[in-house]
Protein backbone atom coordinates (compact mmCIF):
# COMPACT_ATOMS: atom_id res chain seq x y z
CA UNK A 1 0.00 0.00 0.00
CA UNK A 2 1.25 3.49 -0.85
CA UNK A 3 1.05 6.02 1.95
CA UNK A 4 -0.57 9.40 1.46
CA UNK A 5 2.82 11.03 1.97
CA UNK A 6 4.39 8.81 -0.70
CA UNK A 7 1.79 9.90 -3.22
CA UNK A 8 2.19 13.54 -2.30
CA UNK A 9 6.00 13.59 -2.20
CA UNK A 10 7.68 10.88 -4.18
CA UNK A 11 5.34 8.58 -5.98
CA UNK A 12 3.37 11.50 -7.36
CA UNK A 13 6.23 11.82 -9.79
CA UNK A 14 4.80 8.74 -11.48
CA UNK A 15 2.64 9.86 -14.35
CA UNK A 16 -1.08 10.32 -13.88
CA UNK A 17 -3.60 8.27 -15.89
CA UNK A 18 -1.20 6.19 -17.95
CA UNK A 19 0.89 9.04 -19.31
CA UNK A 20 4.34 7.54 -18.66
CA UNK A 21 6.89 7.88 -15.88
CA UNK A 22 8.31 11.25 -14.92
CA UNK A 23 10.51 12.21 -11.97
CA UNK A 24 10.75 15.72 -10.57
CA UNK A 25 12.74 17.84 -12.96
CA UNK A 26 12.80 15.21 -15.71
CA UNK A 27 12.05 17.15 -18.89
CA UNK A 28 12.55 14.13 -21.11
CA UNK A 29 9.05 12.87 -20.40
CA UNK A 30 6.51 12.14 -23.13
CA UNK A 31 5.26 15.28 -24.87
CA UNK A 32 2.09 13.78 -26.29
CA UNK A 33 -1.02 12.48 -24.60
CA UNK A 34 -1.17 8.70 -24.32
CA UNK A 35 -4.47 6.88 -24.11
CA UNK A 36 -5.60 6.46 -20.54
CA UNK A 37 -5.44 2.99 -19.07
CA UNK A 38 -7.66 1.41 -16.45
CA UNK A 39 -6.96 -0.99 -13.60
CA UNK A 40 -9.19 -3.25 -11.54
CA UNK A 41 -9.10 -0.93 -8.55
CA UNK A 42 -11.40 -2.09 -5.76
CA UNK A 43 -13.30 -4.32 -8.14
CA UNK A 44 -16.49 -4.09 -10.13
CA UNK A 45 -19.12 -1.66 -8.94
CA UNK A 46 -22.15 -3.34 -7.40
CA UNK A 47 -25.61 -1.99 -8.29
CA UNK A 48 -27.11 0.01 -5.44
CA UNK A 49 -30.64 -1.26 -4.69
CA UNK A 50 -31.51 2.30 -3.69
CA UNK A 51 -30.39 3.64 -7.06
CA UNK A 52 -28.11 6.27 -5.56
CA UNK A 53 -24.42 5.23 -5.57
CA UNK A 54 -22.78 2.09 -6.92
CA UNK A 55 -19.70 1.04 -4.93
CA UNK A 56 -17.24 -1.88 -4.97
CA UNK A 57 -17.87 -4.99 -2.87
CA UNK A 58 -17.29 -4.34 0.82
CA UNK A 59 -17.96 -0.60 0.66
CA UNK A 60 -21.14 1.02 1.89
CA UNK A 61 -22.54 4.49 2.36
CA UNK A 62 -24.77 6.15 4.91
CA UNK A 63 -26.80 9.27 4.10
CA UNK A 64 -26.00 11.45 7.10
CA UNK A 65 -27.73 14.63 5.94
CA UNK A 66 -30.08 15.59 3.13
CA UNK A 67 -32.11 18.48 1.84
CA UNK A 68 -35.06 19.46 4.05
CA UNK A 69 -33.79 17.59 7.12
CA UNK A 70 -34.39 19.80 10.15
CA UNK A 71 -31.09 21.02 11.53
CA UNK A 72 -30.25 21.74 15.18
CA UNK A 73 -31.02 25.44 14.65
CA UNK A 74 -34.49 24.60 13.34
CA UNK A 75 -33.69 25.46 9.71
CA UNK A 76 -33.91 22.92 6.90
CA UNK A 77 -30.75 21.62 5.21
CA UNK A 78 -30.17 23.86 2.17
CA UNK A 79 -29.75 22.52 -1.36
CA UNK A 80 -26.78 22.53 -3.78
CA UNK A 81 -24.10 21.09 -1.52
CA UNK A 82 -20.69 21.56 -3.09
CA UNK A 83 -17.18 21.87 -1.59
CA UNK A 84 -16.58 20.56 1.93
CA UNK A 85 -13.77 20.19 4.47
CA UNK A 86 -13.29 17.80 7.39
CA UNK A 87 -11.69 18.76 10.72
CA UNK A 88 -10.88 16.81 13.88
CA UNK A 89 -12.69 18.12 16.96
CA UNK A 90 -11.77 15.33 19.42
CA UNK A 91 -11.08 11.58 19.39
CA UNK A 92 -14.67 10.80 18.43
CA UNK A 93 -15.95 13.81 16.53
CA UNK A 94 -15.20 15.61 13.33
CA UNK A 95 -16.65 18.81 11.93
CA UNK A 96 -17.72 19.05 8.30
CA UNK A 97 -18.01 22.54 6.85
CA UNK A 98 -20.20 22.34 3.74
CA UNK A 99 -20.79 24.90 0.99
CA UNK A 100 -24.17 25.58 -0.59
CA UNK A 101 -23.84 26.98 -4.11
CA UNK A 102 -27.08 28.98 -4.13
CA UNK A 103 -27.63 32.06 -6.28
CA UNK A 104 -30.28 34.71 -5.48
CA UNK A 105 -32.24 33.49 -8.50
CA UNK A 106 -32.64 30.16 -6.69
CA UNK A 107 -34.57 31.75 -3.82
CA UNK A 108 -37.92 30.69 -5.27
CA UNK A 109 -36.71 27.07 -5.14
CA UNK A 110 -35.60 27.37 -1.51
CA UNK A 111 -37.58 26.14 1.45
CA UNK A 112 -39.98 28.68 3.03
CA UNK A 113 -37.67 29.13 6.01
CA UNK A 114 -35.03 30.62 3.69
CA UNK A 115 -37.49 32.70 1.68
CA UNK A 116 -38.19 34.62 4.88
CA UNK A 117 -34.83 34.39 6.67
CA UNK A 118 -33.60 37.69 8.08
CA UNK A 119 -30.48 38.03 10.22
CA UNK A 120 -28.13 40.76 11.35
CA UNK A 121 -25.35 38.30 10.56
CA UNK A 122 -26.29 37.96 6.90
CA UNK A 123 -23.53 39.29 4.63
CA UNK A 124 -26.08 40.59 2.14
CA UNK A 125 -29.84 40.86 1.83
CA UNK A 126 -32.57 41.84 -0.59
CA UNK A 127 -34.33 45.16 -0.22
CA UNK A 128 -36.97 43.52 1.98
CA UNK A 129 -34.27 42.39 4.42
CA UNK A 130 -34.37 38.70 3.47
CA UNK A 131 -30.88 37.19 3.40
CA UNK A 132 -29.38 36.01 0.13
CA UNK A 133 -29.59 32.20 0.35
CA UNK A 134 -25.95 31.16 -0.31
CA UNK A 135 -23.66 30.12 2.53
CA UNK A 136 -22.32 27.24 4.60
CA UNK A 137 -23.51 24.69 7.14
CA UNK A 138 -21.45 22.91 9.80
CA UNK A 139 -22.05 19.30 10.83
CA UNK A 140 -20.65 17.65 13.95
CA UNK A 141 -20.34 13.93 13.17
CA UNK A 142 -19.45 11.21 15.66
CA UNK A 143 -17.32 8.63 13.84
CA UNK A 144 -17.87 6.06 16.61
CA UNK A 145 -21.66 6.21 16.74
CA UNK A 146 -21.94 7.22 13.06
CA UNK A 147 -24.44 9.92 13.90
CA UNK A 148 -24.67 13.64 13.20
CA UNK A 149 -24.86 15.24 16.64
CA UNK A 150 -25.33 18.84 15.52
CA UNK A 151 -25.99 20.64 12.26
CA UNK A 152 -26.53 24.36 11.72
CA UNK A 153 -26.12 27.31 9.41
CA UNK A 154 -22.76 29.10 9.77
CA UNK A 155 -22.79 31.60 6.89
CA UNK A 156 -25.69 33.23 5.05
CA UNK A 157 -26.07 36.09 2.59
CA UNK A 158 -23.43 35.04 0.08
CA UNK A 159 -23.67 33.87 -3.55
CA UNK A 160 -22.74 30.53 -5.11
CA UNK A 161 -20.39 29.18 -2.45
CA UNK A 162 -18.71 26.70 -4.73
CA UNK A 163 -15.58 25.14 -3.31
CA UNK A 164 -12.90 26.31 -0.90
CA UNK A 165 -10.22 24.77 1.26
CA UNK A 166 -9.16 23.94 4.78
CA UNK A 167 -6.52 25.90 6.66
CA UNK A 168 -3.87 24.60 9.08
CA UNK A 169 -5.46 26.71 11.83
CA UNK A 170 -8.83 24.96 11.69
CA UNK A 171 -10.97 27.07 9.41
CA UNK A 172 -12.68 26.60 6.06
CA UNK A 173 -12.20 29.12 3.26
CA UNK A 174 -15.51 29.29 1.41
CA UNK A 175 -15.34 30.86 -2.05
CA UNK A 176 -18.00 32.76 -3.97
CA UNK A 177 -18.16 31.78 -7.63
CA UNK A 178 -19.90 34.99 -8.59
CA UNK A 179 -19.08 38.62 -9.26
CA UNK A 180 -22.60 39.89 -8.66
CA UNK A 181 -22.60 43.64 -8.00
CA UNK A 182 -24.60 45.68 -5.53
CA UNK A 183 -27.61 47.07 -7.34
CA UNK A 184 -31.33 47.60 -7.29
CA UNK A 185 -32.11 44.43 -5.34
CA UNK A 186 -29.01 43.62 -3.25
CA UNK A 187 -26.74 45.70 -1.05
CA UNK A 188 -23.14 44.41 -1.47
CA UNK A 189 -20.66 43.31 -4.09
CA UNK A 190 -19.78 39.61 -4.30
CA UNK A 191 -16.85 37.52 -5.49
CA UNK A 192 -14.96 37.08 -2.23
CA UNK A 193 -13.55 34.47 0.14
CA UNK A 194 -14.96 34.10 3.66
CA UNK A 195 -13.44 32.19 6.59
CA UNK A 196 -15.54 29.78 8.69
CA UNK A 197 -14.16 28.21 11.91
CA UNK A 198 -14.65 24.45 12.12
CA UNK A 199 -15.78 24.91 15.73
CA UNK A 200 -18.34 27.64 14.97
CA UNK A 201 -21.54 27.18 16.97
CA UNK A 202 -23.82 29.10 14.64
CA UNK A 203 -23.77 32.00 12.22
CA UNK A 204 -20.40 33.74 12.08
CA UNK A 205 -19.70 37.41 11.48
CA UNK A 206 -19.26 37.47 7.67
CA UNK A 207 -16.03 39.24 6.80
CA UNK A 208 -15.10 39.23 3.10
CA UNK A 209 -11.35 38.80 2.63
CA UNK A 210 -11.17 41.48 -0.03
CA UNK A 211 -7.40 41.50 -0.40
CA UNK A 212 -7.67 37.93 -1.73
CA UNK A 213 -9.35 39.28 -4.82
CA UNK A 214 -12.78 39.68 -6.29
CA UNK A 215 -13.35 37.16 -9.07
CA UNK A 216 -15.17 33.89 -9.83
CA UNK A 217 -13.47 31.99 -7.03
CA UNK A 218 -13.53 28.21 -7.06
CA UNK A 219 -11.15 26.66 -4.53
CA UNK A 220 -8.31 27.55 -2.19
CA UNK A 221 -5.47 25.77 -0.46
CA UNK A 222 -2.92 26.87 2.14
CA UNK A 223 0.71 25.80 2.11
CA UNK A 224 1.31 25.11 5.82
CA UNK A 225 5.02 25.82 5.41
CA UNK A 226 4.58 29.40 4.26
CA UNK A 227 0.95 30.28 4.97
CA UNK A 228 0.55 31.32 1.33
CA UNK A 229 -2.93 30.69 -0.11
CA UNK A 230 -3.33 29.43 -3.69
CA UNK A 231 -6.58 30.16 -5.49
CA UNK A 232 -8.32 28.81 -8.59
CA UNK A 233 -10.81 30.62 -10.81
CA UNK A 234 -13.71 28.99 -12.67
CA UNK A 235 -13.60 30.78 -16.01
CA UNK A 236 -12.60 29.61 -19.47
CA UNK A 237 -9.77 32.17 -19.39
CA UNK A 238 -8.84 31.85 -15.74
CA UNK A 239 -5.56 32.56 -13.98
CA UNK A 240 -3.84 30.76 -11.11
CA UNK A 241 -3.38 33.03 -8.10
CA UNK A 242 -1.47 33.16 -4.85
CA UNK A 243 -2.08 35.37 -1.84
CA UNK A 244 0.86 36.21 0.43
CA UNK A 245 -0.63 37.33 3.76
CA UNK A 246 0.90 40.18 5.71
CA UNK A 247 0.61 37.99 8.83
CA UNK A 248 0.80 34.21 8.48
CA UNK A 249 -2.50 32.66 9.57
CA UNK A 250 -4.33 36.02 9.75
CA UNK A 251 -5.83 36.46 6.32
CA UNK A 252 -7.99 39.40 7.39
CA UNK A 253 -4.83 41.46 7.95
CA UNK A 254 -4.37 41.87 4.21
CA UNK A 255 -1.62 40.81 1.89
CA UNK A 256 -0.45 40.69 -1.71
CA UNK A 257 -2.36 39.02 -4.56
CA UNK A 258 -0.34 37.67 -7.48
CA UNK A 259 -0.84 35.66 -10.69
CA UNK A 260 1.37 32.90 -12.10
CA UNK A 261 3.53 33.54 -15.17
CA UNK A 262 5.46 30.75 -16.87
CA UNK A 263 9.03 31.96 -17.22
CA UNK A 264 10.08 32.62 -20.78
CA UNK A 265 6.54 31.98 -22.06
CA UNK A 266 4.57 35.19 -21.66
CA UNK A 267 0.78 34.66 -21.85
CA UNK A 268 1.18 30.90 -22.23
CA UNK A 269 -2.13 29.19 -22.99
CA UNK A 270 -2.05 25.96 -20.96
CA UNK A 271 -5.55 25.00 -22.14
CA UNK A 272 -4.17 23.30 -25.30
CA UNK A 273 -7.52 23.76 -27.03
CA UNK A 274 -6.37 24.68 -30.52
CA UNK A 275 -2.85 23.27 -30.34
CA UNK A 276 -0.37 22.06 -27.75
CA UNK A 277 1.05 25.11 -26.00
CA UNK A 278 2.28 23.32 -22.88
CA UNK A 279 4.00 19.95 -23.07
CA UNK A 280 2.73 17.04 -21.08
CA UNK A 281 4.79 16.30 -17.97
CA UNK A 282 7.51 18.81 -18.69
CA UNK A 283 8.46 21.12 -15.84
CA UNK A 284 8.24 24.88 -16.38
CA UNK A 285 9.76 27.46 -14.06
CA UNK A 286 7.40 30.20 -12.94
CA UNK A 287 7.38 33.74 -11.66
CA UNK A 288 4.61 35.74 -10.07
CA UNK A 289 3.29 39.19 -10.93
CA UNK A 290 1.59 41.61 -8.58
CA UNK A 291 -2.07 42.44 -9.23
CA UNK A 292 -3.15 45.95 -8.40
CA UNK A 293 -6.64 46.78 -7.13
CA UNK A 294 -7.60 43.22 -6.15
CA UNK A 295 -11.21 44.24 -5.43
CA UNK A 296 -11.59 44.65 -9.22
CA UNK A 297 -14.98 46.37 -9.54
CA UNK A 298 -14.91 45.64 -13.28
CA UNK A 299 -14.13 41.93 -12.80
CA UNK A 300 -10.96 42.41 -14.82
CA UNK A 301 -8.29 40.76 -12.65
CA UNK A 302 -7.77 37.91 -15.10
CA UNK A 303 -7.77 40.30 -18.07
CA UNK A 304 -5.21 42.62 -16.51
CA UNK A 305 -3.11 39.67 -15.35
CA UNK A 306 -3.08 38.14 -18.81
CA UNK A 307 -2.04 41.44 -20.36
CA UNK A 308 0.87 41.49 -17.91
CA UNK A 309 1.91 38.01 -19.06
CA UNK A 310 0.04 35.57 -16.79
CA UNK A 311 -0.70 32.04 -18.02
CA UNK A 312 -4.23 31.00 -18.99
CA UNK A 313 -6.00 27.95 -17.53
CA UNK A 314 -9.24 26.21 -18.53
CA UNK A 315 -11.66 26.56 -15.62
CA UNK A 316 -9.46 26.05 -12.57
CA UNK A 317 -11.39 24.07 -9.98
CA UNK A 318 -10.51 21.74 -7.07
CA UNK A 319 -7.04 22.01 -5.54
CA UNK A 320 -5.23 19.77 -3.04
CA UNK A 321 -2.04 20.65 -1.12
CA UNK A 322 0.43 17.92 -0.33
CA UNK A 323 3.92 18.06 1.10
CA UNK A 324 5.45 20.95 -0.84
CA UNK A 325 3.39 20.34 -3.97
CA UNK A 326 -0.21 20.66 -5.05
CA UNK A 327 -2.58 19.51 -7.77
CA UNK A 328 -5.49 21.40 -9.29
CA UNK A 329 -8.10 20.44 -11.86
CA UNK A 330 -8.76 22.36 -15.05
CA UNK A 331 -12.19 21.06 -15.88
CA UNK A 332 -12.36 21.70 -19.62
CA UNK A 333 -8.66 21.70 -20.45
CA UNK A 334 -6.98 19.74 -23.22
CA UNK A 335 -7.50 19.39 -26.95
CA UNK A 336 -10.52 17.13 -26.37
CA UNK A 337 -11.66 19.37 -23.48
CA UNK A 338 -12.13 16.33 -21.21
CA UNK A 339 -10.00 17.89 -18.47
CA UNK A 340 -6.49 18.42 -17.20
CA UNK A 341 -4.70 18.22 -13.87
CA UNK A 342 -1.90 20.67 -13.14
CA UNK A 343 0.82 20.10 -10.58
CA UNK A 344 2.68 22.96 -8.87
CA UNK A 345 5.79 22.66 -6.73
CA UNK A 346 6.57 25.85 -4.76
CA UNK A 347 10.06 27.26 -4.49
CA UNK A 348 12.07 26.60 -1.34
CA UNK A 349 11.94 30.40 -1.08
CA UNK A 350 8.31 30.80 -2.10
CA UNK A 351 7.15 34.38 -1.71
CA UNK A 352 10.65 35.67 -0.94
CA UNK A 353 13.09 37.57 -3.16
CA UNK A 354 15.37 34.50 -3.35
CA UNK A 355 12.74 32.60 -5.32
CA UNK A 356 13.90 34.42 -8.44
CA UNK A 357 17.02 32.28 -8.47
CA UNK A 358 15.25 29.09 -7.36
CA UNK A 359 11.72 29.43 -8.77
CA UNK A 360 8.73 27.18 -8.32
CA UNK A 361 7.74 24.81 -11.11
CA UNK A 362 4.51 23.84 -12.81
CA UNK A 363 3.66 20.74 -14.82
CA UNK A 364 0.77 19.60 -17.00
CA UNK A 365 0.28 16.35 -15.10
CA UNK A 366 -2.76 14.95 -16.92
CA UNK A 367 -4.60 15.68 -20.12
CA UNK A 368 -7.49 13.31 -20.66
CA UNK A 369 -8.03 11.78 -24.09
CA UNK A 370 -10.84 9.41 -23.07
CA UNK A 371 -14.08 10.73 -21.62
CA UNK A 372 -15.14 7.25 -20.54
CA UNK A 373 -12.19 7.07 -18.13
CA UNK A 374 -11.84 10.69 -16.99
CA UNK A 375 -14.13 13.58 -17.85
CA UNK A 376 -14.58 17.03 -16.32
CA UNK A 377 -12.67 16.53 -13.07
CA UNK A 378 -13.72 19.04 -10.41
CA UNK A 379 -13.07 18.57 -6.66
CA UNK A 380 -10.20 16.30 -5.72
CA UNK A 381 -8.53 14.83 -2.64
CA UNK A 382 -6.11 12.05 -1.62
CA UNK A 383 -7.30 8.67 -0.42
CA UNK A 384 -5.79 6.73 2.52
CA UNK A 385 -4.02 4.39 0.08
CA UNK A 386 -2.26 7.32 -1.54
CA UNK A 387 -4.40 7.49 -4.66
CA UNK A 388 -6.01 10.61 -6.01
CA UNK A 389 -9.80 10.80 -5.81
CA UNK A 390 -11.46 13.06 -8.38
CA UNK A 391 -15.13 14.10 -8.48
CA UNK A 392 -16.52 14.35 -11.99
CA UNK A 393 -18.86 17.20 -12.88
CA UNK A 394 -20.37 16.59 -16.30
CA UNK A 395 -23.90 17.53 -17.24
CA UNK A 396 -24.78 15.62 -20.39
CA UNK A 397 -27.95 13.65 -21.16
CA UNK A 398 -27.82 10.04 -19.97
CA UNK A 399 -24.37 10.47 -18.44
CA UNK A 400 -23.65 9.44 -14.86
CA UNK A 401 -20.84 11.08 -12.93
CA UNK A 402 -18.13 9.05 -11.25
CA UNK A 403 -15.71 9.28 -8.39
CA UNK A 404 -12.47 8.34 -10.13
CA UNK A 405 -9.44 6.84 -8.43
CA UNK A 406 -5.97 7.37 -9.87
CA UNK A 407 -3.00 5.26 -8.82
CA UNK A 408 0.52 6.64 -8.36
CA UNK A 409 1.71 4.49 -11.29
CA UNK A 410 -0.70 6.20 -13.62
CA UNK A 411 -3.82 4.05 -13.88
CA UNK A 412 -7.43 5.08 -13.39
CA UNK A 413 -10.41 3.20 -12.01
CA UNK A 414 -14.02 3.95 -11.17
CA UNK A 415 -14.50 4.01 -7.41
CA UNK A 416 -18.17 4.98 -7.43
CA UNK A 417 -20.90 5.83 -9.92
CA UNK A 418 -23.62 8.34 -9.07
CA UNK A 419 -26.93 6.94 -10.29
CA UNK A 420 -28.88 10.19 -10.25
CA UNK A 421 -28.23 13.14 -12.54
CA UNK A 422 -26.06 15.26 -10.28
CA UNK A 423 -22.41 15.71 -9.41
CA UNK A 424 -20.42 14.32 -6.49
CA UNK A 425 -18.59 17.12 -4.70
CA UNK A 426 -16.57 17.98 -1.63
CA UNK A 427 -14.88 14.59 -1.18
CA UNK A 428 -12.77 14.58 1.98
CA UNK A 429 -11.56 12.03 4.53
CA UNK A 430 -11.78 11.81 8.28
CA UNK A 431 -8.39 12.38 9.93
CA UNK A 432 -8.01 8.63 10.61
CA UNK A 433 -8.66 7.86 6.94
CA UNK A 434 -11.56 5.50 7.68
CA UNK A 435 -14.47 7.56 6.34
CA UNK A 436 -14.83 9.44 3.10
CA UNK A 437 -17.46 12.14 3.15
CA UNK A 438 -18.91 13.34 -0.13
CA UNK A 439 -21.85 15.48 -1.19
CA UNK A 440 -24.35 14.79 -3.91
CA UNK A 441 -25.02 18.26 -5.20
CA UNK A 442 -28.79 18.41 -5.71
CA UNK A 443 -30.98 17.44 -4.05
CA UNK A 444 -28.41 17.76 -1.25
CA UNK A 445 -27.24 14.50 0.26
CA UNK A 446 -24.09 14.16 2.34
CA UNK A 447 -22.75 10.62 2.48
CA UNK A 448 -20.29 8.83 4.77
CA UNK A 449 -18.55 6.00 2.89
CA UNK A 450 -16.68 3.23 4.68
CA UNK A 451 -15.02 0.05 3.53
CA UNK A 452 -11.75 -1.83 3.02
CA UNK A 453 -9.64 1.09 1.85
CA UNK A 454 -6.53 -1.10 2.24
CA UNK A 455 -7.78 -3.76 -0.20
CA UNK A 456 -6.85 -2.13 -3.48
CA UNK A 457 -6.46 -4.74 -6.23
CA UNK A 458 -3.79 -3.87 -8.78
Overview of this structure, please?
With about 450 residues, the protein is mostly beta strands. The protein has a domain at about 70-210. Helices cover about 5% and strands about 35% of the residues. It contains 3 helices and 26 strands. The protein has helices spanning about 5-10, 110-115, 300-305, and strands spanning about 45, 55, 60-65, 80-90, 95-100, 135-140, 145-160, 160-165, 170-175, 195, 215-220, 230-235, 240-245, 255-260, 285-290, 315-320, 325-330, 340-345, 360-365, 375-380, 390, 400-405, 410-420, 425-430, 435-440, 445-450. The chain has a 9-stranded antiparallel beta sheet with strand order 11-12-13-14-15-19-18-17-16, with no helix packed on it. The protein has a 6-stranded antiparallel beta sheet with strand order 1-2-23-22-21-20. The chain is globular, with a radius of gyration of 21 Å. Mean pLDDT is about 90; it is low at about 1-35.
Mean residue pLDDT: 90
- Share in β-strands: 35-45%
Query: Whole-number radius of gyration?
Result: 21 Å
Ends distance? 10 Å
Main sheet: which strands, in order across?
A: 11-12-13-14-15-19-18-17-16
Q: Mind describing the biggest β-sheet?
A: 9 strands, antiparallel
Number of helical stretches of at least 4 residues: 3
Characterize this entry briefly.
With 458 residues, the protein is mainly β.
Features:
nine-stranded antiparallel β-sheet; six-stranded antiparallel β-sheet; mainly beta; 458 residues
